[in-house]
Design brief:
Blueprint (H helix, E strand, L loop, with lengths): L4 H13 L3 H23 L2 H18 L9 H20 L1 H7 L11 H14 L3 H11 L5 H8 L3 H18 L1 H4 L1
């Protein structure tokens, strides 16, 4: 039986904070794939995403006693991963490169699903990192605007605005694919 993320939050956070190794292994098993996918979408690079996911869980282990149970483990993990991704993008100066990397969608003779998937990945890469994070957290991970606000460090209203701007920019970047 697969464990749900919500069930993991409630069941293991207390044990995790006390240093229970099996609780950490449970959290790692449930959340590592989710955090990896988030980082891969943010960065467009699976190798770097793997490093970000690993760093996230190293920080979890080091900071486990300081996690606020009211905030929740899921939000804490995504906050750390988002901050690590943003720092990586800043350090590497990838923002400018990502904006320049958006190309027209793949040729129509490719399988439509593959072309659309690639176009979406490229469009996400074309968003500023703060909008990219909000779009991924909202559309791929189902966070509410309030949760997103806590993760990215802004007000819920600002999270709504960023989500709206990200959607509008994605529509613009994907105009040829959506028509």
């Amino acid at each position: 039986m697969r464990e749900s993320a919500a069930g993991v939050d409630a069941a293991v956070l207390g044990r995790l904070r006390e240093g229970d190794r099996s609780a950490f292994e449970t959290v790692l098993r449930v959340y590592h794939p989710v955090i990896f996918r988030f980082a891969a979408r943010m960065l467009g690079d699976p190798e770097t995403a793997s490093d970000i996911a690993q760093q996230t869980f190293l920080r979890l282990h080091a900071s486990r006693r300081r996690i606020d149970p009211r905030r929740g483990l899921r939000s804490w993990l995504f906050t750390v991963a988002q901050n690590l991704c943003t720092s990586h993008l800043r350090r590497r100066g990838l923002e400018a490169r990502a904006l320049g990397s958006v190309r027209p969608p793949a040729a129509r003779d490719l399988a439509e699903g593959v072309a659309v998937g690639e176009a979406v990945r490229e469009a996400l890469a074309g968003l500023p990192p703060d909008q990219r994070a909000v779009a991924i957290l909202r559309e791929y991970h189902g966070f509410t605007h309030e949760e997103i606000a806590r993760i990215v460090g802004c007000s819920p209203g600002a999270a709504r605005v960023k989500a709206h701007r990200a959607r509008e920019r994605l529509k613009e970047l994907l105009r040829d694919v959506l028509d």
